[in-house]
Amino acid sequence: MKCESFISWLENRDIHDVSEADRARIHAESCRKCSKLMLQDEALDRCIREAMAGESIPDGLMQRIDMSLDRSRARKGVTGFIGAVVALCFVFGVAMVLNQRPDFITMDQLAASVLAGHLNHGALDIYDPVDDPAVWLTGNVERKVGSPDRIPEGFTVKGARFCTIEDCRVIHMVYGKGDELVSVFVVDENDAGFHIELGKTYTLGIEENRITFWKKNGNVYAVVS
Questions:
Q1: Who contacts 132 (Cβ-Cβ below 8 Å, separation ≥6)?
Q2: Contact 115, 188 (CB under 8 A)
């Protein structure tokens, strides 16, 4: 299991899939970053369990609730049932639309989002040290992601990590030259709702920053300089 799969398992863990849980724990034992994430997640679970601990119900309360429900059912009858079904269908419809919506509808939206991520990149010690981008990407990412090939001249890779932008998990790599840093974001093409023609480069300017986009191997790359 790689770090990307571990994070996905941690966010959407299936308690019935014992084999996947075993693989995740074995990975955490050998990965300091993922082990820390697991400890934080388990601590959060404990806090939630303690906060949601059951309280004893006062005497007679359940009987009063049952009586109120019986009276409500008698009044609503079939009309109430139909209304509930319609409301439920509406909720499911909205959920399906939202689930199908890509995270980044336009290139302008993605540009603004990655620029914000670049300006708030944090200290370099929160990134994995990287000497060779291809080695880090192969070792940590399940899908095929090639090394970014349109980096400003003279910049060398400093670190990489996964981060979340607009509820979308992306790869964030930092390159540096002296005191100057540029960011490279890699987004799954399925999370972009706009078209980028293969082989073309797109550039947007936002104030003093420039964001360059291109597509390769099913991924959208964005360099913020």
A1: 157
A2: no
| Separation of alpha carbons 7 and 53, rounded Å | 27
Residue 170 in contact with residue 129, Cβ under 8 Å?
no
CB 35 within 8 A of CB 29: yes
Q: Are 146 and 133 in contact (CB under 8 A)?
A: no
Q: How far is CA 161 from CA 150, 164, 225, in A?
A: 19, 10, 18
Determine the Cα–Cα distance for residues 49 and 71; give it in Å rounded to an integer: 34
Is the distance from CB of 193 to CB of 100 less than 8 angstroms? no
Query: What pLDDT digit, counting tens, does each position of 134-171 carry?
Result: 999 999 998 889 999 889 999 999 999 998 887 788 99
Q: How far apart are CA 114 and CA 188, in angstroms?
A: 14
Distance CA 115, CA 161 (A): 16
| Secondary structure letter of residue 143 according to DSSP | S
92 or 24: whose pLDDT is higher? 24
Whether pTM exceeds 0.85: no
Tokens 């639309």 sit on residue: 97
Measuring CA to CA, which residue among 187, 14, 199, 7 is closest to residue 107? 187
